[in-house]
Design brief:
Methane Monooxygenase Hydroxylase, Chain G, domain 1, mainly alpha, elongated
Length: 88
């Protein structure tokens, strides 16, 4: 445990940020899962909307530094590729 006042404050801030990031990362994962389920079920309109929401969540997480920008780009690319496969 930290003894210095500034280190104690830094620990509090880190914990608060960790919990906030965890919520955002979890909601992003949930949205991606919903999009994949819609794609697997072959629901074109629903899948398109879910993928759109997943892309928004990924962009938000990437902009805030919760996930790396290349990680977000890779996930978006894979989702779009899966979506395109059911639209054929």
């Amino acid at each position: 445990m930290a003894n210095i006042k500034s280190a104690i404050k830094r620990n509090r801030q880190n914990e608060k940020r960790r919990l906030h990031n965890r919520v955002l990362r979890g909601s992003t994962r949930t949205q991606i899962r919903r999009a994949r389920l819609a794609i697997e079920n072959g629901e074109k309109e629903t899948a398109a909307e879910e993928v759109k929401q997943a892309v928004i969540k990924l962009d938000c997480a990437s902009a805030k530094g919760i996930i790396h920008k290349n990680n977000a780009a890779r996930r978006k690319s894979r989702l779009m590729k899966q979506l395109a496969s059911i639209e054929k």
